[in-house]
Amino acid sequence: MKEDIKLKSDDLVSISIYQVTEYPMHYHEEPELIFILSGTATLHTAFYTIETVPENEFLFINSTTLHNIERYGDAPCQVMSIYFHMSKMAALYHVPAFSVLSIASFDQFNSPRIIEHLRDKLVKMARAHYLPESMFQTPSDLAMECYAYMMNNFQWHYYEDYVLHNYPQRLPLSQITRTEQVLAYIQEHQKEKLTLSSVAETFYLSKYYLSHLFKKSIGISFQDLLNAVRLNTALYSLLGTQRSIEEISAECGFSSPAYFRKAFATHAKTSLSSYRKKYSPRTLQKMRPAIIRFSEAEEKAAFLSYQKKHYPHQLLPQGVEKISVHVKLTAPPLPCQLPASLYQLHLTPCALVHPDFFEDVTKSMKFRSAHSNLDDFLPLYHSYGSWRFTDELRRLADQKGILFSIDETNAHAASDHQSGSCEMISRLMSVMGLKNAAGCRGTIIGGPGAMYTDNGFRTGWYYLWYLLHQLKDTIIFSNDCCLITMENREIRILCLNEGDAKKEIFLHLEDIARDYSILTYSMALKGDTEESMWRSLGAPEPVPDTLLSTIRHSCFPDVSYTRSTAQYDLFRDITLEPGEIKLLALMPLESP
Questions:
Q1: Pairing of strands 369-372, 403-406
Q2: Which pTM was predicted?
């Protein structure tokens, strides 16, 4: 029944397409994704049958799980099998292999959006296999991305067809680890006489705690789990040999043949004799697969036909600029630096009327100094007879540790023309409309590039300054459209598309050794303002101050969040529409 899959030594996946009538009961050491390209199939595994798997759907088969697949109906059925070389993947990238992950039907437990994202990744992986000239990434690169996506998003783990009812991140790590240890122990000692008490004693636990742990993490009792483990082992002898029920029962640890029959009937919803009569003759040992193997050219043609039907946009990449970015995180930092003016705030007399704007800006951004032009403030000085009208701003600046000054010298002290200044920031300012892009400074209100309108709404400049102030001081990569900074393993990736064509940036970050939380900020360079967002919501006018304050502290044009495993962002494609800027903020989680 075992089928050996031939995998090239340098590949993490093996992909093949064939036309199936019936592929008899078998298992293999590699996890498999069965993808239906055309027609309809029936899939049977050890404990469940899915009568109809329609075109463009896929199923995950865990390693060593018995399964067969056959055509449903009279129409031809084309199947794409994707085998993951898990042992190599785990060793190469120091990630866990799929152990008790056996997903029967993704659609049953996950949202259509998540399903579609994984389907898209699988199609990209097949495309890289059959059309390597059209992709920046290799099938192995994309296999790692698929693996990480499944581990992050498909958190319904099965032991056979039992589901872990809780997402792992909702359970303490100690409970997840303990559950895995007990599962491994039961598998190893299944032939022995095991009881809840004896297993609990082995792990120095009370039987009540262990019973509660099974219910909470796996959703079934200890006895049901033990029966499932033994039944899974029994199936190999049941279908692959002519041994008696009595022999198989004793070998697998059942107390009696009668109990073996009862447990099987309860679990498989059919009798042992009926199951053996139906599936025992239908194994690789006793019949050849009724399939038509395709040549390399035929496989490519079959995939192109599927892609043309379901993913036509992938065949028409015109007008998309593809850019590959490879960054080694442990490489020395670049000699360039962020412009000094990025951290300078230019105050106009209008700012005195709105000290709350000053406080708002300094809370979310890291300006180091606030300068004012002496000439702008002289009329106010003569009117008040002193500089006391600046006291509120000085107080707020002192609270934030910001240097505050009003004089001719400091207002023009910093220049960004020195060697090594970051040109991407200057170009970005130019795109936004500042003429003197090299010497730009943030302005709160009443000046070029002001962060607030006269009626108090945030402008696109506010959001741009917010993004720029998320950057770290150490630059590790910079080109025309991508700037990457890092500090203490926190990474910021700023991407800019100032052109008229869509861009796809394929990012490879090497030497990632931590799990990350990832916030992705997106904004249109000349379109996103607080006022436009309010109007799109049908907000009242004039806007109540309390309502304005609420949205001010909760709104950004577009923010998304993902949580990653250590390898998640090794291979990531970042899509940028014309006139769009994105910032990816990667923050390492506590545990590696």
A1: parallel
A2: 0.53
